[in-house]
Write the structure tokens for this entry.
Amino acid sequence: MTFVSCNDDFDTPPMVVPQATHQPNMTIADFKAKYWKDVNNYIDTVKEDIVIHGWVTANDVSGNIYKSLYISDGTAGFSISINGTSLYNTYRVGQEIVLNMKDCFVGKYNGQQQIGYPEFYEKGSVWEASFLPLATFQSIAELNGLPAVNKVDTIPMSISDLKTDAETLKKWQGRLVRIDNVRFSDADGVNTFANSDATTNRNIEDENGNTLVVRNSNYATFRANILPLGTGSVVGVLSYYNTSATKLDGGTWQLYIRTADDCIGFSSSTKGLLTDPYTVEEAIAGEAEGLSGWVSGYVVGAVAPEVSEVKSADDIEWTAPTTLDNTLVIA
């Protein structure tokens, strides 16, 4: 008789913590300023021994951000255009990346300053910073340590902060920001983040009427989610889009959310929308709280002429035809 046994107590392989060999010697803010040009498309080559670093603030995990990473070192944010997909598998939010920039390219693509690769735009007869080959990016980018989400800085700001002068563009492009007390202008309980056939712009609006485009891909995992209702906070990375051949200002600020979780504190209730109106009883109960929205009921009469405040049944005409047709009573 033969006995066979197996040992399932395998040794756990050691965790390999990546360590960069290059040391940063310039902040992102200083790097952006050094290579900034007041045009909407250009490309420049870094000839000096410059090393920058940053923690990943946004990637392509949901499909809303396309072939790009965003990083920040606390002084500024920066976008990196990369001809690759599923970047989030390696470059997770909170992962520190060290970039050896010598002989690499920086420029703008339609107003957005970014690390990229030279491409000639024939229609505009200009060079621009387009997608950096993935292999090239991998050759200059070193991981340093394990992802640390606590290193990701989210900057509170207001929509009104977004001007289009050069200093504002340098400051806010590529930043992960949080904007509080805003609502989605198109939120009606029906509209989704994006249409099924195209990238869709949805505006957020603050209490002063300032608006900002939230740009949503039809490939995003949250595309079909209903737009959040009510008022809340939105987190995302800022981009700037300008196709003018001559004007630096006049472009459009755009916000890209990373996942649906970047919309915080909004209401999930559809009550008061056209698809889910209040009853008359609910509307009366909420009047003192400033409740607003659609109300469903049956027309039972109209306010009598010269009555400014209904105090009794005598102030209402209950039978048709009524004298007035623009002050109806429902129940």
